[in-house]
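Blackboard transcription, Thursday session:
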Amino acid sequence: DQQVKQNSPSLSVQEGRISILNCDYTNSMFDYFLWYKKYPAEGPTFLISISSIKDKNEDGRFTVFLNKSAKHLSLHIVPSQPGDSAVYFCAASARATGTASKLTFGTGTRLQVTL
Amino acid sequence: DTEVTQTPKHLVMGMTNKKSLKCEQHMGHRAMYWYKQKAKKPPELMFVYSYEKLSINESVPSRFSPECPNSSLLNLHLHALQPEDSALYLCASSQGAGVYEQFFGPGTRLTVL
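(Written on the board underneath:)
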């Protein structure tokens, strides 16, 4: 049972435009969410996170939006740059259950930023 | 130093071999993790160490044996593996075993023949 889903396996965006990556979850106990970026032959790199008490968190070109009622979060990258081309994973954890360290990852979305 | 290092980068082993994967961090983090990632799949948690004690074992087969000799080092001892254990093994660390971002190493690509 995939508790965190990224339904778009790939996304292509032109340089300078907005990239929107989506993530859905089913476990209502999840209350902390993270986005990671992964280049080939490297480990995932932390990008940005959001707690369930917020609906938006912004860090430079990256903004994460959380819609708890829809169990949906999205990552916006503006403007997109060629160096953003990578696989993006969303991850979730359930702090309230005492297992905050256990991250459940989505299946990933491959972002290609074209010139 | 904001890096998690892993050795070796690549490992090929037979089903009767014994080998070890190593992970090191010098960020003063007190929690360390092992993940397994198969091709085109997300990372899956295997073990969590918090303050050098095993706190989570995700029902991993005993042919995988973790060890945390000190707060900077994490090992994964491998014995009698199966070909289906071939995967990328990722180590991560975080400030604590709570709501903290996890920092990942580059991984060890393991092939079991």
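Lecturer's comment: The interface with chain B takes residues 4, 32, 34, 36, 41-46, 49, 51, 89, 93, 95, 99-103, 105-108 of chain A (CB under 8 Å).
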